[in-house]
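Homework help thread (please don't just give me the answer)

Our assignment gives two proteins as sequence + structure token strings and asks us to describe the second one. The first is just a warm-up. Here they are:
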Amino acid sequence: MYHHVYDSNIHYKYMLISKIEILRVLKAYNPWWDEKDIPPAFVKRLRRTPFYEVLKLLNNKALKRAIVLPGPRRVGKTTILYQIADYFIREESFDAKNIIYLTMEHPILKLMPIDQILELYEEEVVTEKGREKIVLLDELQYIDEPTVWLKLMVDGHPNWKMIVTGSASITFKNKDLESGVGRWVHVPVPTLSFFEYVLLREYEKNDKKAPMFAKAWKATSLGDLSSEEKKFLTDSLKPLQEEFNNFLLVGGFPESAMLDDPALAQRLLREDVVDKVLKRDMAAFYKVRKLQELEKLFVYLCLHSGSMMNEQTISGELKITRQTLDSLLNCLEGAHLIRKIVGVDITGKKVLKGKTKWYVVDSSMRNAVLLKGKDSLQDPTDLGLMVEAATVNQVASFTYGSTPRLGHWHGKKEKEVDLVVEGSKYTPIAIEVKYRGNYELKHNEGICEYLSQKNKAVGILVTKNTQDFGVKLFNMNGKIITITQIPAYIFLYMMGHYEFKLNQAGHGKE
């Protein structure tokens, strides 16, 4: 805990480190103060959806809240902060000295309370004190009581735009949700979509071109395309089939996505994403003492990702108490390592006990932990699990802003659907993943039963083979239901493409 000592001018005295040392670090992180420009190495060309979401919020003058970017380690949150700085300097002619980036993970910056660092910045760098400022703060969880601090900053500095990141859930760490009500808004940063993976490699490695289409086709409406449009789409995307396998194996995080060596990519994922979270962050931020139990649980979830899991069974198999299990599951969720998908009834509102599925947030992370290399792409069962997880995670990321209800549906006689998406802004969507060769959909399967009971619902069957692309009709007791079969690589690519086109159009690029 820091001890604040005040002098007669009500300024902090810098007890542990000199102002000169702090300023040296700040200038290294903020080269635009002197250069009036941001080095290209700091800013990647690919602007992801969270970047545009942040811009929308910042441009809403009525919104007086901080913006929190939660997401796994190494997912690209820092890049988004630098892109925000770059955008305001280049495109909005914002005074470069009124933008500050700092990371609370830096050991020198940890030696001074954040309030003193910002005070020093205002005293030594800012030229006009009353002007609007943009504060880009990385890894907020390193601050004591981060939610309390953020509340005070929002209340005390109405002319400061605060954008902060967190690899660990700051609200879970603090357990002080009430103090922050109305003080901030979340913009999650997910792992890469398949489209983003392809586009990133094109931009950064001069890799094969990411196919672009003039129309922003919705992935859920691909069944409505004409036969000529379907052929054009299929022919354009067919070269990406092998790239899709690489994406499933190692492609969810920007750094690993750029590597052509899967073994190296997986080693970096284990060291930078998984090990640091499990062995360092959990002890530091969540005060987890049973790190061995935590590691065992995470490996267990990797082994059974996407399977129905009864918590009583997990507790018994791992020999840990239910109370400990619940606590560790909450920690893994807060660290953005796992995602919970609950079982729901036909209304989509009633949660079914004992029908929970846990997914590791990205298949590449699961593969790294289990040391699954290219040989796993030849295992139909393993490959199917990867595609299902990628589908669930990409749909969850795509639909976040409109707060849908996501679940997996269960009907009579063990009928089920892998993923259903419902909400006030959504036509109900049922998605079933059958990633296997020569699969033939039958009328008695779960997705058909769900669609027969749910009015105006859209049915999508995610498949493996390119020739599966098309529409199937079934007569369910006099009701005609329609299911669009879409190869996985096309479905996931076009979902990302649609999002990209919307971002570009909303930013005046079309």
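The one we have to describe:
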Amino acid sequence: MRALVALLLLANLAFLALSRGWLQPWVGLSTQHEREPQRLAAQIEPTSVRVLPAAAASAAAATLCLQAGPFDATQIEAAEAALAALPPGSWRRVPVEDGSHGPAWALRVESADATLQRQLQGLALPGPNALFQPCPR
């Protein structure tokens, strides 16, 4: 029984030393350094994060990046002609690797709101990859 009491007393003393940070210089153990202040110091422009009202947040979530393709050299010309009806600067051509022979491109819309998404779905683009999908990350 005395051994059990002594063992519990030693365990309590060890936990007290750990929680007070007394073991940090010798064994590197401490509960005081669990908050990882180096992560807070490494933040890039933390003041640029803004909390939006619910209506603005749903509008921001409604805009997304969409991409169609890959298109080969002949398909990209026809696809760009179909996109000529969209507002200027709303889309761009980006090079992609599709594993086939020769160069390939995709058409990307960086911030498509609900109106632009409806316009994109109504377009007739050439090829099997003619549908606009969310952009790959």
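TA reply:
I won't write it for you, but here's a hint about the kind of observation we're looking for: Helices lie at 2-20, 24-27, 37-41, 54-62, 73-82, 114-121.
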